[in-house]
Specification:
- The chain contains two helices and ten strands, in the order αββαββββββββ.
């Protein structure tokens, strides 16, 4: 009897672990994902930006992988950074941003709630990420000068970089 229960418990734990991984994989397929110079599902970010602008409630996940060539210009950094005295140390790992567009009809206000998960991220001294875990921002804009999608008019800082903007040749 004891062994049957142990076997049943082990099987349930194994299955629940597989289900959680499958759900995570499925959620990532629906996310905007940056890997090196490639950004998957960028159209979902544009749809989210449009929905947020029009006061529609929407949610999106953005996963940004860091490491070699993880920034816009293929040299390990955003355009516009002067790194003449830096050693180009790369951040590693990933940051997951969960964004939610909120519209309060009573107050006539709209904003984006940002929650970041940096559990699998190792900071770089040369190009630090400064996003605070929970944040409210007004909107997302494209900054052509540095080549990035920026979370703008945020509670703790004016702007945060969300993703590099892919270059098109």
């Amino acid at each position: 009897m004891f062994y049957r229960r142990l076997l049943l418990l082990s099987t349930l734990l194994l299955l629940s672990g597989c289900t959680e991984e499958t759900n995570t994989d499925e959620a990532n397929k629906n996310a905007v994902v940056q890997e090196g110079q490639t950004i998957h599902n960028i159209e979902k970010l544009y749809k989210f930006m449009e929905d947020a602008k029009n006061g529609k409630e929407a949610e999106i996940r953005v996963i940004r992988h860091y490491g070699e060539l993880s920034y816009d210009n293929g040299q390990g950094k955003f355009k516009g950074y002067d790194d003449s005295e830096k050693n180009n140390e790369q951040a590693t790992g990933k940051i997951i941003y969960d964004l939610k567009a909120v519209h309060d009809e009573n107050a006539g206000e709209k904003w984006i709630e940002v929650h970041s998960n940096m559990d699998d991220f190792e900071q770089s001294e040369d190009y630090p990420e400064t996003m605070i875990d929970s944040q409210q921002c007004a909107y997302i804009r494209i900054d052509e000068e540095i080549g990035a999608y920026m979370l703008t008019e945020c509670f703790h800082a004016w702007e945060y970089s969300l993703l590099p903007k892919p270059t098109i040749d």
